[in-house]
Amino acid sequence: MAAGSDLNREDDTDDMFDDLFNKYGEVIYRRNDQKKPARSAFDDDAESLSFAVAMAKTASDVKGSDIRVLFVKPLVYWTSFFIIVTAFSRPQVDALASRMRDTAEERFGRRATGDSKPNSWTLLDFGDVVVHIFLPQQRAFYNLEEFYGNATPIPVTLDR
């Protein structure tokens, strides 16, 4: 094929995506590029929020500190919520991650990908909810709250 036909094919593809965007307003990235049937984005967000709040409360139960839940969906395409937690030792990081994994699996039937050993920054990726567990120095250094400063903070009442 001539180089000119490749350029036309790219233009056609761009036009196709523009038409889809104009018609549907957003592009949704999901596993195998398929939407779940009979579910709205609002339902997905409500379910994700419920899960995020449960994970934040679990972190509180294990004495995690300065727990923040942020709605980041308008800012990133890969998740809806961040949970940011401070732990004060690597054993506490391990305890937080372990309890959160257990709660997610037992109550919600969900499994996290991410770090499996305690570190100064441990990440649990549940897809729609991503948990960041930091030691204080790393939390201050990476400062995700400022980096995602336009995220909407979700007020969560945590019993102590």
UniProtKB/TrEMBL annotation:
This is Protein Iojap, chloroplastic. GO terms for cellular component: chloroplast. It holds the Pfam family RsfS. Belongs to the Iojap/RsfS family. Coiled coil: none annotated. One of its GO terms (biological process) is negative regulation of translation. InterPro entries: Iojap/RsfS/C7orf30, NT_sf. Its main location: plastid. GO terms for molecular function: ribosomal large subunit binding. SUPFAM superfamilies: Nucleotidyltransferase (SSF81301). Keywords: Chloroplast, Plastid, Transit peptide. Interacts with chloroplast ribosomal protein uL14c (rpl14). NCBIfam families: rsfS_iojap_ybeB. It comes from the Eukaryota. It is found in: Plastid, Chloroplast.
